[in-house]
Amino acid sequence: RLTDVVAFDLNVQEDYWSKEYTLELEGDNPVDIRKTKSILFNRLNSYGVEEVTIFEEDGNLRVVVNTTKSETYVSELIRSPYQYSVVTRKDEVDFETQENQLAPYLAENYDETKFDSSIFRNIHVTKLPTSSGELSYFGIAKLWPKYSKDFKDFLSQYNEEYIGIKIDDFVTPVYINDPTLLAIPLGPQEESAESIDILYNSGNIPLSYTVTEENDLEVNSYNIDYIELTIALFVSIIAIYLYTYFTGIYDKSEILRTMFAVLLSLALFLTYLKITYMPIHIFLLLIDAIVLIMLTNLLKQNEESRASLLIGAFTIGIIFKYLGIGYLKILGSHLMILSIISSLAVLTSDYYINKISAYFKK
Question: For this UniProt entry, which segments traverse the membrane (predicted)?
Fold first, then answer.
């Protein structure tokens, strides 16, 4: 049964944490500092960190976050410049010795090559089978065309051998069994692969830096009981429409139809949140409800413009989702869902009420 596998409760995001990181920069070029700030912000925004502030102070960068996202991966996105390049093993180093099992991971045991992050257009993260047959995440290197031939010739020289991807001060060993591509092993965990994807593809930080200080801050959280909020919304909607119904200002039949469509849209939205277990910030739930009520009313009252309204709302959602930051980015993804739900509620309510009316008119 569905109830045996689905948790019928909202996935409310309440575990906020807040921290300030101090980054000591190894350089003072204003252009490089601005680019570093931009890339750090893009990393955190891509990961879905709700509130990010980055500012420069006394030659250092201070990064302040307030979020419900994983502290482990948020810290990784901030702490690591993630400056990477391709390296090769030194001939004089024994990488198979049991006495030094860290040898394959130490940058000092590798020689630099001319291939750094600038030759890669992006690193495409995908799931592929490993030699044991299990699925794991790999980063497939996509090169700029002008470097493609040289890099493939380089890989051919090391076919059936190990090379390495040096990331900051450590190396990820990579075995070359196909000289036409570079597949970097990332591990089986989805969230870890997501953060590494962001680190590889959010831009190349021009400055090295170290995190010199971390301070926990007071958390800005929003404590709202969503059950009480839901009840209050339904009661308020019914009260408003009943008041309008009995005052006789508008057509009574149309008022009842609109009220039914609005209540159905809210019920469908809550059902969607429960079945999909989509993460929801409780104060955004109130905003979502208000937007859904307004959108459903507009679609219901403007039958001739429904397509335009729906396309407009969905387009705004896409813009917010892909160009917005923080909570606006989250609200954009919600607006796309709300557009579909409101349209479905209006069409379903019209069909259902027409069937009921036809039945009682017999």
Answer: 226-243, 255-272, 278-295, 307-328, 334-353
Please write down the long-range contacts of 112-117, taking CB distance under 8 Å and 24 or more positions apart.
112/85, 112/87, 112/166, 113/85, 113/86, 113/87, 113/88, 113/154, 115/85, 115/86, 115/147, 115/151, 115/154, 116/84, 116/85, 116/86, 117/83, 117/84, 117/85, 117/204
CA-nearest of 275, 263, 272, 270 to 346 is 263
* Dihedral of the alpha carbons of 336, 338, 341, 347, in degrees to the nearest 10: -100
The Cα–Cα gap between 64 and 18 comes to 7
Could you state, in order of their start, the residue ranges of all structural domains in the chain?
17-81+205-220, 82-194, 226-361
- 209-219 pLDDT, tens digit per residue, is 999 999 999 88
Report the chain's C-alpha Rg in angstroms. 27
Give the pLDDT score at 221: 60
Q: How far apart are CA 313 and CA 291, in angstroms?
A: 10
Contact 90, 111 (CB under 8 A): yes
Question: 55 and 33 in contact (C-beta within 8 Å)?
Answer: no
Three-state secondary structure string covering 188-210: CCHHHHHHHHHHHHCCCCCCCEE
Neighbours of 294 (CB within 10 A): 14
pLDDT tens sequence across 59-102: 889 999 999 999 999 999 999 999 999 999 998 888 888 888 88
Q: Which fold has domain 82-194?
A: Gyrase A; domain 2 (3.30.1360)
